Amino acid sequence: MQGWNERALICEEGTVLREADVVVCGAGPAGVAAATVCARQGLDTLLVEKNGFCGGAAVAGLSGTICGLYLTQNDIHNATPKQIVFGFAEEFRTRLSKKHGLTEPQIYGNTHVVTFDPLIWREAADDMLEEAGVSCLYHTLVTGVVKEQGHYSAIRLESSAGHTLVKAKAFIDATGDAALAAQAGLPYTYGDNGAIQNPTMMFRLCDVDEEGFYGYFGSDTICPDDLTQKLQAAFKDGSYTTPRDRVWVFPTPQHSVFLMNCTQLAGQNGEMLNVIDPKDRTWGEISGRRAAREYHRFFKDNVPGFEQSQLIDMSPEVGVRQTRTISGESRLTNDHVAQCAKAKDGIARSSWPIELHAGEVSKLHWLIDDYYEVPYATLVPKETDNLIVAGRSLCAEHEALASARVTAQCFEYGHAAAVATALMLKQGLSYRDVDTDELRARMIDNGSAL
């Protein structure tokens, strides 16, 4: 993988490190998909990532599951999992499975999820990027955008080595925060009039007695009502600081290791955290670690199977569900999701519920035995020709995003952005003018179900 050369260590303002066809910013599910598919189409592709590994919220945030692959169904305990999302999402799922880094489908309310090993996720992404010929720069931040004659021509990069520029013909913003689009001065919104979904500190426990766990929880990864009542009582009498009373517990590929989605983070006075503000983000990290310890203490004392458990891992960074969303050529609306609408330019199916982690009570609205399609135009920002987004920063209403933001769909957003990039560059178009019939046909050729 290509790193900084010696000249970059002493470069002056304006020095160009390299030129590429396309630069992908962010190496979460959308970024890995976008970079891999771009390179496979013969594009000289550079991937820039702030961390030292791929995965984004899936790995650094330890979300730990691939959500959104399967159809939501009634009578889920007697239903066979029905996969509806394929393409790059299925390719990555298969890669994880072959490396023994993935569980079989597990029941999650009225649908199914699979849980992955975050270490194997990183390795699978490294392998796929290297096989495709992607150049990667880890530990590198994007700090600026250069615009010339109406097009974005370069981005400014910062690392411990110094600063430099990278020139490209196209840019894919897969940061999850629309960071590139924001730095480019493009319009965006932030949550629901400034209110975003709550972040979570995920953690993993080992030495869980599986027989005790399944005997109490059953086969659903969403906690039973009895546990919710215990959490409410413990919080009310002050014996535990456990404000979130509806929790998720996932078996993992490792025996007796469980992934815990329990914490619901807020500011020191209970206010919403603005997680793109370093001050709020810092408090989220600190309070999140404390919250994980407190929930583990509760589980050890009160939940069958967890008596001898040990806390072995917390996410390297607090898990973020939502920040900026772009102002796009099309907007994914709450009604589009709730009514399971299809789109002529649809590039990803989703049957994932509206899973809104906001305020004191989480909302779950299930889309039973149906799915909607996410329009391609939701990835295309207004006011630009050669920048596209991939991931949770697509143009969407607040509740719609609570469904559309999950991992399987993000893989396919990256897939779509990459195919659109190849079409755009080959035909000399803007992203908004890409023929979506051809885009969809190429995605179907790559295995997507549309």
Summarize the entry for a quick read.
The chain is of the alpha+beta class and 450 residues long. The chain has helices spanning 6-9, 29-40, 56-59, 87-98, 118-132, 179-183, 210-217, 225-236, 278-302, 334-338, 398-404, 407-427, 436-445, and strands at residues 16-25, 45-48, 65-66, 106-108, 111-115, 135-137, 141-148, 151-159, 162-173, 188-190, 203-206, 248-251, 258-261, 310-314, 324-326, 346-350, 354-356, 363-365, 372-375, 387-389.
Overview of the molecule:
With 450 residues, the chain is α+β, with helices and mostly antiparallel strands. Helices cover 31% and strands 22% of the residues. The chain contains 13 helices and 20 strands. Strand 4 (106-108) and strand 5 (111-115) form a beta hairpin. It starts with 5 loop residues before the first helix and ends in a 5-residue tail after the last helix.
Features:
single chain, 450 residues, alpha+beta, 7-stranded mixed β-sheet, 4-stranded antiparallel β-sheet, 13 helices, disordered N terminus
Question: How many H/I helical runs?
Answer: 13
Q: Write down the overall geometry.
A: globular
Helix/strand/pairing category: alpha+beta
Radius of gyration: 21 Å
- Please tell me the overall pLDDT: 93
Helical fraction equals: 25-40%
Topology:
Elements: H1 6-9, E1 16-25, H2 29-40, E2 45-48, H3 56-59, E3 65-66, H4 87-98, E4 106-108, E5 111-115, H5 118-132, E6 135-137, E7 141-148, E8 151-159, E9 162-173, H6 179-183, E10 188-190, E11 203-206, H7 210-217, H8 225-236, E12 248-251, E13 258-261, H9 278-302, E14 310-314, E15 324-326, H10 334-338, E16 346-350, E17 354-356, E18 363-365, E19 372-375, E20 387-389, H11 398-404, H12 407-427, H13 436-445
Parallel strand pairs: 1-2, 1-9, 2-6, 9-20
Antiparallel strand pairs: 3-5, 4-5, 7-8, 8-9, 10-15, 11-13, 11-14, 12-13, 16-19, 17-18
Helix pairs in contact: 2-5, 2-12, 4-12, 12-13
